[in-house]
Write a structure and sequence with these properties.
Keywords: Signal
Shape: elongated
Number of domains: 1
Pfam families: WxL
Structural class: mainly beta
Domain WxL: 24-187
Distance between the termini: 98 Å
Protein name: Coaggregation promoting factor
Signal peptide: 1-19
Order of helices and strands: HEEEEEEEEEEEEEEEE
Strand order of the largest sheet: 1-5-13-9
Length: 188
């Protein structure tokens, strides 16, 4: 009987009630980052080639046969917005002859004419103006409102996205125009 009581006593020792534990309060800390904005850059722009074409006795429009280069814009975290303009000098030949009243037109037919270089870019992309008539006065080709257009973007033109309208009465020759692409660090 004593053995039974001793066993019974040992068994009851394990059944001592334990107080409920309360979880320790959470510990907080911080992570900080001071991100210094960089600059906005325009590092490249496209050129358009029309190749060798036959002169015409009438008004004629030539379509570009190739495009080289891309429109490369990057805003390294400023968020101030920007515009890119383009102006075209008159078409002139090596000897100085001018292609009188010629008009250079850009008609961007690309499905996605300007896109972020990084697929996970969270900024609203800038806007590329698809149809432009170029002259010596700058016209806006890309614009980003304040808070948008942050990150690196590429604007592309297809091989046939430019046209050159030449009025009748011009003399044949090897003509060229200089396109001046200008970045203005100002919102659209």
């Amino acid at each position: 009987m004593l053995v039974g009581a001793a066993v019974l006593g040992i068994g009851s020792l394990g059944a001592v009630a334990q107080a409920a534990t309360t979880p320790a309060p959470p510990v907080t800390s911080t992570a900080t980052a001071d991100i210094t904005p960089g600059t906005i850059t325009l590092s490249s722009a496209p050129s358009f080639q029309f190749g060798t074409v036959a002169a015409s006795a009438n008004d004629i429009s030539y379509t570009s046969t190739s495009t080289s280069g891309i429109l490369d814009i990057a805003d390294a975290g400023t968020g101030t917005g920007y515009t890119v303009t383009v102006a075209a000098s008159p078409f002139t030949a090596t000897g100085g002859a001018a292609l009188k009243n010629a008009q250079l037109l850009l008609d961007n037919k690309e499905t996605d004419p300007i896109k972020a270089d990084d697929v996970d870019n969270v900024s609203t992309p800038p806007t590329l103006v698809a149809n432009l008539s170029l002259s010596s006065s700058p016209v806006t080709v890309v614009s980003a409102a304040a808070g948008s257009g942050v990150g690196a973007y590429t604007g592309t033109y297809g091989s046939t996205d430019a046209s050159l309208k030449v009025p009748a009465g011009n003399i044949g020759g090897s003509y060229s125009s200089t396109l001046t692409w200008t970045l203005a660090n100002a919102p659209a």
